[in-house]
Amino acid sequence: MEYTAFGDTPASRCVYYRQVCDLPATIDPPHLGRIIMRADFIWALMMPFPLGQAVKAHMQREDRDIGPILSHPRSSRWSYLVRPDLPDDDYLFAKMFRLNVSVVRTGGTIALPSPADQHVEFRCWIESPRCTFRPSGLVVVDAIRACAGSGRSPMVTRA
Questions:
Q1: CA distance 101 to 42
Q2: For FRET with 150, which of 18, 21, 44, 140 sits at 20 to 30 Å CA-CA?
């Protein structure tokens, strides 16, 4: 995302997230300028950075739109914002758990990058949202399975 130095505030970023990207962003708490959204019609798949990077490369090789991806550098995790189309399936969630993938479902909280963040170590966009597109959660899960299916960790360069 490109912003001018004088126009990028937590409030203006929330307006952009809501109006352009249809992300239900709010500032919480207001005095810190942290931007969050409650998972409802948007979920997130959070995974270790190396797996996230491998999933991105896999989806690009398959000519799939990847949608917004968040990086959490301090925890070395990436989050894919997805459509909430994953079935309520214990086997699926157990498989994701074994791969260290968390599903942020309805009612969960997703922190978004804010201009109030003091350092890039908090949150940043790998792929910033530019519209309302989010990939199917099932498509991202299939990519996760493809990347993790070899039984070895998809180690790539550090974010």
A1: 17
A2: 44
